[in-house]
From TrEMBL:
It comes from Streptomyces variegatus. It comes from the Bacteria. One of its GO terms (biological process) is DNA repair. The keyword Hydrolase applies. One of its GO terms (molecular function) is phosphoglycolate phosphatase activity. This is HAD family hydrolase.
Length: 221
C-alpha cells in the first residue's frame, strides 16, 4: 500500500501545546465564579473531555444544568486571555513536519475551534504539515467516545489499522482504542504513564521531542 496511506492523528492540548494547566486554572476560576469549589487536581484529570461532559464529570448529573452554559462561557473567556502566548511543547512543529515528509497524513483531533484553534495552530507553527483538523463540533460525542478519532480517519481517508493516534489523556487513549487505532501517549499533559497504559497506550513518550528522537523505534516508524 506504500506510505501514502498512513494517518498520524494528534490531540492538541497537552500533546502538542502546553495548555492543560492553563485550562485547569480557567475551569477552576469559572467554577469558582459560579459558586463551586472544585479542586484543581480533579479538574486536571477531567481536562480533555468536551465542556459539558467535563462539567458533568466534576459536578455530577444532579447539578443545576442551567449553569452549564455560563460555566463553559466563563472558561472560554478566561482561557482566551492566553491566546497570544500559548506555548508549543518541545519540537511539536518539527515532529509534524517530519511525519509529513515521511509520507504520513497528519490530522489534528481537537475540541478547539475558531479563534482557539487558530491560536493553537500558530503555536505549533507547522501548518504546511497538517492535512486536516477534526473538530469536536463535527461529531455527536467527544472523547472518550471513538467518534473524534473516526472522523479524523475519514478526513485522512485511511482505515484504522493504518493509523496511529497520539494524545496525553486517559480520554484520548480510550477514544483511540475504541476506534481501533494504535495509541501513543505523551506525559507532557501531566497524566501518569500507568494511567495512559491502562487506558490503551501502546507506547509512551515524555513529549513530542522525545517521540521525534525515538521515531524509528516507535509506532510511527
Amino acid at each position: 500500500m506504500g506510505s501514502a496511506g498512513r494517518a498520524a492523528v494528534f490531540d492538541v492540548d497537552g500533546t502538542l501545546v502546553d495548555t492543560n494547566h492553563l485550562h485547569v486554572v480557567s475551569w477552576w476560576e469559572a467554577f469558582r465564579q459560579a459558586g463551586h469549589q472544585v479542586p484543581m487536581h480533579a479538574v486536571h484529570r477531567a481536562v480533555g473531555l468536551p465542556s459539558t461532559d467535563l462539567i458533568a464529570h466534576l459536578l455530577g448529573d444532579d447539578r443545576d444544568t442551567d449553569q452549564d452554559a455560563d460555566i463553559s462561557a466563563g472558561h472560554k473567556a478566561l482561557y482566551g486571555q492566553y491566546f497570544d502566548r500559548l506555548p508549543a511543547l518541545p519540537e511539536a512543529g518539527a515532529l509534524l513536519r517530519r511525519l509529513h515528509r515521511d509520507g504520513w497524513t497528519v490530522v489534528l483531533a481537537t475540541s478547539a475551534d475558531g479563534a482557539e484553534l487558530g491560536a493553537l495552530r500558530r503555536a505549533i507553527d507547522a501548518d504546511e504539515a497538517i492535512a486536516a483538523t477534526a473538530s469536536a463540533d463535527d461529531v455527536d460525542e467527544g472523547k472518550p467516545a471513538p467518534e473524534p478519532v473516526e472522523h479524523a480517519l475519514e478526513l485522512a481517508g485511511v482505515p484504522a489499522e493504518r493509523a496511529v493516534f497520539v494524545g496525553d489523556t486517559v480520554w484520548d487513549m480510550r477514544a483511540g482504542s475504541r476506534a481501533g487505532v494504535r495509541c501513543v501517549g505523551v506525559l507532557c499533559g501531566g497524566v501518569p504513564r500507568a494511567d495512559l497504559e491502562e487506558s490503551g497506550a501502546d507506547a509512551v513518550y515524555a513529549d513530542p521531542a522525545h517521540l521525534l528522537s525515538a521515531l524509528g523505534d516507535s509506532p510511527l516508524s
